[in-house]
């Protein structure tokens, strides 16, 4: 009995220390892993293999369907479709899916369809959501490859060439995700996200490819092999983030999912806090939805390669909750005396803050260096990235904490429908 | 905007590729943006304080006293370097070893045989249509699709022979 009491006491004393150490060490160690993995990927695959000044030569040009689902896209539809039609690839068709839009999207697409022989338009007579729109397009084409982008995104004209080579190289490749670059760079939020798409999105994709599995493709720009989609039953209708879900489905069915940095796609992002919050909350809830849906992988040895990806996401979720708990304990400690082992003296770090400060800005610098040859004037955003580590952790922490219960409480069959996002200052 | 040659985008005439117009924000927002960034850099520089105390004769010995001695910063840092950093490096090393082993193990060894392309029959299994109707639909340039309550494709019609419900009317 005494022994049990002593162990409980030890645990109670050591648990807070463990939590505080985890809060500090998790982002630090993961940052090192991202940097090392990103740099390895650069030297092994990207430096020579994805040089945008030397587009790769292809011997064959299998047919590609360039798919763009649109919901209330009257402002962007024409620009997006005309840019797709200018793709530098000899064998393609463009499929624009009008998902029951209530504005002039249908009218614009019909006019373009009459003017351009390579454009086909699918009208869904009711709004069905992006996943159903993409599935319909995949079913309505005889092309074996589908390059899917969003209705407000501009695809680089060589993107199809860069991506198709992966499919031709290996029959295991089920999807290749492109490299989204930001167009909206007016406000501080916009400029911070420019850096984020390198220092987090880009470098993590590289590091995850070094490992061999991705948590998610970028739904805004991704090419699929159709037989792989048929194999996994196309996109799931109930997901909040169809890109995370399809990535998991493909990889759990042993299809390889790759990243192609030279396949750039220029996108619009929110430049208001409310717009950013809505978007990130959806991403967080979508990620949580995926790990809830696929938690059964731990029982299957053959799915073990996805375990580290699952574990890393789970740890990031745990970290978010622990950070919130630490902040709450600190605030409580301001008003109520707490036991010394529980007390948080300050939220301002000492030398540990210096380590994180250096690491985060090194990670950003490395990531911007890796992405700078695909972008334009990327380094000028580095100055504004000073807030990024703090802003990123804060918003990720908050959205993860809110998004996880949201995903848990969401009905398993509830359809994921479109949201009208904030598209920045233009 | 003149773009480097590696970016090949066709924008609408009135749109640049990159919207970099800080002036489109209210003056107050611009001021706040600069102020917030300035504060951010100040905080970042502030985080260097413990390192800068290596020059205590210049910045003040009390900071060294507080950060490195009173708060046991040196021992913490040394302890961290000896006992904790190796775990971080080990994580990085595991990733690199894993990647290298896989590279050597599977180089030139294709583990999956090429799969035949998706057939209309296989695709039709995911719809409420048959393969012949699916093939027919693929020939249409402008088409209207309807779905059941679960989102399965139910029917495909040529746009010219379809009348939209009133709210979607042409």
Produce the secondary structure layout.
The complex is a heterodimer of chains A (426) and B (170).
Chain A: H1 2-49, E1 64-70, H2 77-85, E2 92-99, H3 105-115, E3 119-124, H4 130-139, E4 145-149, E5 154-155, H5 159-169, E6 173-182, H6 188-211, E7 221-225, H7 226-232, H8 242-252, E8 256-267, H9 273-293, H10 307-335, H11 351-371, H12 388-409
Parallel strand pairs in A: 1-2, 1-4, 2-3, 6-8
Antiparallel strand pairs in A: 4-7, 5-8, 6-7
Chain B: H1 27-46, H2 49-52, H3 56-59, H4 61-70, H5 73-106, H6 120-124, H7 131-138, E1 142-147, E2 153-158
Antiparallel strand pairs in B: 1-2
Structural class of chain B: mainly alpha
Portion in strands of chain A: 5-15%
Helix content estimate of chain B: 40-55%
User: How do the SSEs of chain B run, as a string of H and E?
Assistant: HHHHHHHEE
Cα-based radius of gyration of chain A, to the nearest Å: 23 Å
Distance between the termini of chain B: 37 Å
Write a concise synopsis of the structure shown.
The complex is a heterodimer of chains A (426) and B (170). Chain A has 426 residues and is an alpha/beta fold.
What does this structure look like?
The complex is a heterodimer of chains A (426) and B (170). With 426 residues, chain A is an alpha/beta fold. In chain A, 53% of the residues lie in helices and 13% in strands. In chain A, strands 3-2-1-4-7-6-8-5 form an eight-stranded mixed beta sheet, sandwiched between helices. In chain A, strand 1, helix 2 (77-85) and strand 2 (92-99) form a beta-alpha-beta unit. In chain A, helix 1 crosses helix 6, helix 2 runs parallel beside helix 3 and helix 6 (188-211) crosses helix 11 (351-371). The N and C termini of chain A lie far apart (69 Å). The relative contact order of chain A is 0.14. The mean pLDDT of chain A is 90. Chain B is mostly helical. Chain B folds into two domains: 23-105; 120-161, no CATH class. The two termini of chain B are 37 Å apart.
Give structural attributes:
heterodimer, A: 426 residues, alpha/beta, 8-stranded mixed β-sheet, 12 helices, 8 strands, 53% helix, B: 170 residues, mainly alpha, 2 domains, two-stranded antiparallel ribbon, 7 helices, 2 strands
């Amino acid at each position: 009995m005494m022994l049990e009491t002593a162990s409980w006491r030890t645990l109670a004393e050591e648990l807070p220390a463990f939590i505080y150490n985890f809060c500090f060490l998790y982002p630090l160690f993961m940052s090192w892993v991202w940097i090392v993995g990103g740099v390895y990927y650069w030297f092994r695959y990207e430096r020579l293999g994805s040089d945008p000044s030397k587009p790769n030569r292809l011997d064959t040009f299998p047919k590609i369907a360039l798919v763009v689902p649109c919901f209330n896209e009257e402002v962007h539809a024409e620009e997006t479709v005309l840019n797709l039609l200018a793709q530098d690839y000899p064998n393609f068709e463009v499929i624009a899916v009008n998902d029951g839009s209530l504005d002039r999207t249908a009218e614009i697409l019909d006019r373009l369809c009459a003017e351009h022989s390579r454009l086909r338009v699918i009208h869904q007579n009711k709004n069905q959501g992006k996943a159903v729109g993409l599935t319909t397009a995949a079913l309505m084409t005889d092309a074996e490859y589908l390059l899917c982008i969003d209705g407000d995104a501009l695809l680089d004209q060589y993107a199809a060439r860069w991506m198709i080579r992966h499919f031709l190289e290996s029959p295991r490749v089920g999807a290749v995700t492109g490299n989204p670059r930001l167009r909206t760079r007016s406000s501080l939020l916009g400029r911070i996200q420019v850096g984020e798409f390198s220092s987090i999105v880009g470098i993590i994709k590289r590091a995850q490819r070094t490992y061999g599995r991705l948590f998610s493709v970028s739904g805004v720009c991704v090419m699929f092999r159709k037989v792989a989609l048929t194999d996994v039953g196309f996109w799931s209708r109930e997901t909040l983030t169809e890109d995370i879900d399809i990535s998991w489905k493909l990889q759990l069915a042993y299809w390889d999912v790759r990243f192609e940095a030279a396949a750039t796609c220029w996108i619009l992002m929110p430049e208001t806090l409310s717009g950013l919050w809505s978007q990130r909350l959806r991403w967080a809830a979508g990620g949580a939805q995926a790990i809830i849906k696929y938690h059964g992988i731990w029982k299957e040895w053959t799915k073990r390669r996805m375990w580290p990806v699952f574990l890393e996401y789970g740890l990031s979720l745990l970290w978010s909750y622990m950070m919130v708990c630490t902040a709450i304990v600190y605030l409580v400690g301001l008003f109520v005396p707490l036991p010394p082992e529980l007390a948080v003296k300050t939220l301002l770090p000492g030398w540990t803050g210096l380590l994180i400060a250096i690491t985060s800005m090194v990670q950003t610098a490395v990531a911007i260096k890796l992405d700078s040859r695909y972008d334009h004037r990327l380094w000028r955003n580095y100055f504004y990235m000073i807030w990024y580590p703090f802003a990123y952790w804060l918003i990720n922490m908050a959205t993860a904490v809110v998004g996880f219960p949201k995903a848990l409480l969401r009905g398993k069959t509830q359809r994921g429908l479109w949201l009208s996002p904030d598209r920045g200052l233009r | 905007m003149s773009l480097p040659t590696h970016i090949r985008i066709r924008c609408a005439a009135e749109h640049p590729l990159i919207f970099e117009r800080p002036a489109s924000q209210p003056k107050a927002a611009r001021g706040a943006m600069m102020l917030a960034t300035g504060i951010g850099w100040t905080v970042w520089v502030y985080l260097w304080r413990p390192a800068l105390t290596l020059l205590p004769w210049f910045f003040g010995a009390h900071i060294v006293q507080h950060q490195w001695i009173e708060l046991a910063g040196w021992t913490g840092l040394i302890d961290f370097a000896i006992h904790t950093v190796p775990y971080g490096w080990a994580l990085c090393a595991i990733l690199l070893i894993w990647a290298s082993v896989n590279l050597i193990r599977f180089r030139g060894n294709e583990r999956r045989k090429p799969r035949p392309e998706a057939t209309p029959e296989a695709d039709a299994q995911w719809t409420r249509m048959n393969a012949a109707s699916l093939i027919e639909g693929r020939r249409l340039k402008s088409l209207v699709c309807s779905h059941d309550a679960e989102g399965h494709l139910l029917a495909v019609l040529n746009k010219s022979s379809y009348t939209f419900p009133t709210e979607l009317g042409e």
